[in-house]
Design goal:
Elements (H helix, E strand, L loop, with lengths): L11 H10 L10 H4 L5 H19 L4 E5 L7 H17 L4 H15 L1 H18 L8 E4 L5 H11 L4 E6 L16 E4 L2 H10 L1 E6 L4 H15 L8 E4 L1 H7 L2 H6 L11 E4 L2 H9 L11
Parallel strand pairs: 1-2, 1-5, 2-3, 3-4, 5-6, 6-7
Length: 291
């Protein structure tokens, strides 16, 4: 029978160092590698639910107005600068179809620059009317990024009011705009939890022109309203002509894939004042009952 070699005693300090530096010895709450494991997804989902919820409660945020819209819709001065750059490139290479296309797109972005100011003004109106005497009703909430989101946070900021930004990690990192109230700016990993926080306290959705992300958020809210899975709130599309070209809602009703009454889930506005009039006279506005 083979003899076992005697086990040498380890150097006490070396062994202790190995133990203390082992990931398994780390407190679970401090072990980001452990928390990032696929098996911990339910825990991460719960954390993304609780962290904003607790912060909103601490800040006294009772209700919100959600403002969605495109990241590329910028204020007029920036839109004109981009257009000038596109013209310069197109003039330098007249046969370059990529530059020609970029010029057309820059012209269309400039044509929508008024929506940036409209979102800014709407947020100012809402924040001035609702955030009074330390109360936090109808707090403006956006996705926290540039474009229409920046405009809305900016309008609230310039009126001295709080506003919320729900940012998300993306392949091309989206930096929060500087107008969000710092203690009400959050970064999400999961779109589902971000969407939940958009709608949980919402008393209105105001949708400015935008792309895929804006469409996703709009149709998600419409589906929840259609199926009575969320509170009864107005959904206001700003820019009737834009939205009627993007989505032919009447066609959906004519084809029988949505009911005629589902068209009533959507209202249109052309100005910040019109949007606010729809919201402030809605049956479930503050003081007019609860959903």
């Amino acid at each position: 029978m083979e003899k076992r070699q005697p086990v040498t005693q380890p150097d006490r300090q070396t062994q202790l160092t190995k133990i203390l530096s082992s990931p398994t010895y780390r407190l679970a709450e401090h072990d980001t590698e452990f928390l990032g494991r696929p098996e911990l997804r339910p825990v991460r989902l719960q954390l993304e639910l609780l962290k904003p919820e607790m912060a909103f409660s601490a800040a006294g945020v009772r209700s919100t107005i959600v403002i969605f819209g495109g990241t590329q819709i910028v204020e007029e001065a920036e839109a004109r600068r981009r257009l000038d750059d596109a013209r310069t490139r197109a003039a330098a290479e007249p046969s370059n179809t990529v530059h020609a296309r970029a010029l057309k797109r820059a012209e269309r972005i400039l044509a929508k620059a008024a929506y940036y100011e409209a979102a800014r003004e709407f947020a100012r109106i809402v924040s001035t009317a609702c955030q009074t005497n330390g109360e936090c009703d109808y707090v403006v909430v956006t996705g926290g990024g540039p474009g229409i989101m920046e405009a809305a946070n900016r309008g609230a900021f310039e009126s001295g009011a709080k506003s919320i930004g729900l940012n998300i990690t993306l392949p091309a990192e989206q930096v929060p705009n500087p107008y969000i109230t710092p203690e009400l700016c959050f970064q999400f990993h999961y779109f589902a939890l971000r969407k939940l926080h958009f709608l949980l306290r919402a008393r209105a959705l105001v949708i400015f022109p935008g792309g895929f992300g804006t469409l996703d958020e709009l149709t998600d809210a419409l589906t929840l309203r259609q199926t009575n899975r969320m509170q009864h709130i107005p959904i206001v599309l700003v820019g009737r002509e834009y939205w009627r070209r993007v989505i032919d809602f009447q066609f959906l009703a004519d084809e029988g894939v949505i009911a005629d009454e589902h068209l009533e889930l959507i209202q249109y506005a052309e100005t910040p004042e019109e949007a606010w009039e729809i919201i402030s006279t809605f049956p479930y506005a503050p003081g007019r009952g609860t959903p």
